[in-house]
Protein 1
Amino acid sequence: MKVDVLLGLQWGDEGKGKVVDVLTPRYDVVARFQGGPNAGHTLEFEGQKYVLRSIPSGIFQGDKLNIIGNGVVLDPALFKAEAEALEASGHDLKARLCISKKAHLILPTHRLLDAAYEAAKGDAKVGTTGKGIGPTYTDKVSRNGLRVGDLLHDFDRKYAAAKARHEQILQSLGYPYDLAETEKAWFEGVEYLKQFRLVDSEHEINQLLDNGKSILCEGAQGTMLDIDFGSYPFVTSSNTICAGACTGLGVAPGRIGEVYGIFKAYCTRVGAGPFPTELFDETGDRIRQLGHEYGAVTGRKRRCGWIDLVALKYAVMVDGVTQLIMMKSDVLDGFDTIKACVAYRVNGEETDRFPFDIAEGVEPIYAELPGWKTDMTKMQSEDEFPEEFNAYMSFIEEQLGVPIKIVSVGPDRAQTIERYTEED
Ligand code: GDP
Ligand code: IMO
Ligand code: MG
């Protein structure tokens, strides 16, 4: 069997959690392959709302196996809080969730280092989620990290050495801190974590595939936040692109099947960094209000703007997207005119090729399309779509060269419409 991958194509928060939940019944396994509790994936169904951070979004649909892969970074304290809340609402996690022994641990001092580095950057700060993501991946790459599997053998010594090294850095930065409380919660998290099945997930996953099981990989963040291809240095510290599923799970490239690329009908970004189509006017405020564009985890205001087809085309290219999923279409229901960025003007020259740096001198060039001025939130099938909406989708499909197969018209699981072509 092949592995299908679902990826955010913008700057995160595209609605990945919702769609993974919708697609889960078609798969045997759902796996996270990168990122950590910087993610906030929202699911809504049967009047309930859940925000998942480290636990895959396949956890609510029947007895599917959910895997936290080796590419993920895990904070035991946050994991415990998240998992216990789900257990309290009647979801049996221990039977359905396993965790790679090779996933790296976010230590309490990683969170402090994240805050200390941000403070040291002053105005140039990234605006991270403050969850210790960067410092944990830094330790991984510099071969100083601690992994989930380390919890099972001689851990206290390894922890003390890492903590001492981190404290030296914190002291050299003059960053004040108090570890007592967070360390206590962290070690409680460690004991809780040990109750789960800690596995060599690359073996499990390949065995499952050999046995004909199907796997959906759930991306976190988005392609524009990728450490290599995103708007560096205003990015996260992992490979959010499709290839990240290979390294983050131990799946060979030839085993990748469908690549679902998910995007909002407009665009948002949270944290600092360039955003060519950002709107600073009342249209931006209107999108924020209608789309409830506030961070699922941090509550931070999300910056809003028009769809950026230059960046999306780039994302489709580096991810090898085979199907598109358009989210939050309903948010644009009331607009007279909708703009779509089709090219950038860079140093006076027009280009539709995503440039090395979008921080300076990039001016978006827009196409204008008529709005559909119709409430789409209760629609059940594509036959009900207004003509102008179909025209907006066709325009995007033409620009990106990939079909839009799913349209989301509201946050609920039920507000999801599949589109069918003659080949389906
Ligand atoms: P993720 O990080 O990609 O899983 O996305 P988030 O959960 O951070 O942000 C998406 C937000 O949009 C959540 O509050 C969802 O409940 C909401 N949402 C998802 N799809 C739709 C949609 O089609 N319409 C509207 N109005 N909201 C949606
Ligand atoms: P989901 O999975 C949106 C952003 C942060 C910051 C940058 C680096 O819910 O889409 P980090 O804490 O990762 O070092 O922060 O990345 N960021 C996200 N933005 N959605 C996310 O996740 C994000 N995860 C990180 O705001 O700009
Ligand atoms: Mg999110």
Protein 2
Amino acid sequence: MKILAFESTCDETAVAVVEDGRKILTDQIFSQADLHAVYGGVVPEIASRCHVESISILAQKAIDAAGITRKDIDAVAVSYAPGLIGAVLVGVNFAKSCALALNVPLIPVHHIRGHIAANYLAYPELEPPFLCLAISGGNTILVDVRDYTDMKILGATRDDAAGECFDKTARVLGLPYPGGKPIDELSKTGDDTKYVFPISHVDGNEYDMSFSGLKTAVINLAHNCEQKGETLDRASLAASFTKAVSDSLVPRTVKAAKELGYKKVVVAGGVAANSRIRADFKAAAEKNGFELYIPPLKLCGDNGAMVGAQGYYEYLAGHTAGSDLNAYATMEL
Ligand code: KG4
């Protein structure tokens, strides 16, 4: 089954063709990051307009690159939540029109379910159930993936997402948006013990997280240094900050895996590209004897292939939509 899949929830317009949920025939991505970088973050209206400009061009490009014709498309899948509402609406409306014109089923896909499904593309042998930590620019959640379309949130951030925290810290360090990758690079030459930052702890649910305290600690440190006329060791700040994020994420995930008896741990989302977090998860997997699945870098960030992968399983579960499908800024997993 060939699915034409659309992703437009933030600042990437992406269109892919995926076969049977596991094989990428093409994955076309147009990143708007450079357009937003001058503003230090995503400007929603610019994002929406840019999606409008690029989505039809990318759709044709995807069909050509996959070596198929429109007649070969069996279904259309689209990220319909959560995300910047104007941006999501562009993808949803375009996908609805495609499904109508091609007379094929329309499959709504939750964006975070898509991130999780990126791992099905990278690891053909991976099947639920497993534990998943989904860490992106807008979400940070620990999920019990009981089946392809049956998931339970065990814990989530109560404030900022991990990616948001990377982006804000990057701004303090004068690094460009999106800040995750530049912090990753800078941290490689730093000393992660030089600055001590708070590890996220919240009362009530041990699997819930918080990153706003860490963000404030970074801002305060930078201001204090400036006021005292001291030179900030930017590389060590980046390394110490990344260590604090990783120490908030990895032990919690390990604890949940042990408690639920899972031997398979999956990491997903843009922040899963972080080299320190990847290394810490790898070490934890070796130490605790679980199989670790993290997508290759190109499947960590937003892409259309992940939507096509999850779309396949949503279709098998009978989750299709009519032409009245809407877009949503927020939605339970
Ligand atoms: O999954 P994603 O592409 O978009 C959302 O669905 O939100 O995630 C984007 C986030 C941004 O905050 C970006 O700074 C972060 O992922 N990111 C990273 C790295 N690469 C991207 N964070 C840490 N280290 C990285 N190497």
